[in-house]
Amino acid sequence: MLIFSVLAAAIAPGVALLAYFYWKDRYDTEPLSMVVKMFLTGVLIVLPIMIVQRGLMIWLGESPFAFSFIVSAGVEEFFKWFVLYHIIYNHTEFDEPYDGIVYATAVSLGFATLENVMYAFGEPATFGTLLVRALLPVSGHALFGVFMGYFMGRAKFQEGRKMRFFLWISFLFPFFWHGLYDFIMQSVPRSWIWLIVPFMFLLWYRGIRYVNRANSVSPFRLLKREEEVKS
Fold this sequence. Notes:
- With 231 residues, the chain is an all-alpha fold.
- It has nine helices and no strands.
- It has one domain (2-230).
- The chain has helices at residues 2-23, 32-44, 46-60, 64-88, 98-122, 127-156, 160-187, 192-216, 221-230.
- Helix 2 (32-44) packs across helix 5 (98-122).
- The N and C termini lie far apart (51 Å).
- Belongs to the protease PrsW family.
- The chain crosses the membrane at residues 6-23, 35-53, 65-88, 134-153, 165-185, 191-208.
- This is Protease PrsW.
C-alpha cells in the first residue's frame, strides 16, 4: 500500500501539469493518443539520457557550470528537441502554434515523471520532498517544454531564415533557462530558496504569456468565433 502511495505521489504532478496545458488548448484539441505517445516517448528517452550524462560526468568532472549547462540542460533539452523535431514537427496533427506546447510539455513531463519515480524509490522520500519536487523540477521541466514548444510552433509556420531561427531558439531558450535553474541549485545550496522561488515565478509568468500568445494566433480562432456567431 505504501509503495502504491509513493508511486501515485511521484506520478501525479506530471500528469496534472500535462492535463493543465492540454486543456489550455482553446481551439483545436490534440488527439489524446498522440499526447500519450509523446509522454511515453519522454519516458523512453530517460535511459539514453542517463547513459550520455554518466559518460559526460566522468569526462567533465564535478564543475557546477559544466554539470548545469552541459550534462543536465544540454543533454536533456537536446534529446527532447530531437524527438519532437523528428516525430512531431512534420506531423499532420501539428496544425496550429499551440500544438508545439502540448507535445513539448508531453515529452518533458514524461521524462520528468519517470525521473521523479526513480527519485522517490531511490532515496527515502517523504511527502514534503515529493511536494518540493512537484513545485520545482517537475514544473520546471513543464515550463522548459512550454518554451521549446512555443518557439517550435513559431518555426512551423515560418519559412526560410525565420523558420531556421525559431528552430534554433526552440532549443537554445529552454537550454539556457534549464541550465540557469540547475546552476542556481548547484552553486547556492544554503540560500537557494530565496533565489529559486522568484526564479520559478518568472518562469511561470513567461510560460503563461507564451501559452496565451500561441492561442491568440491559432488559425482556428476565427473559425470558432464564426461558429459561435452562427449558433
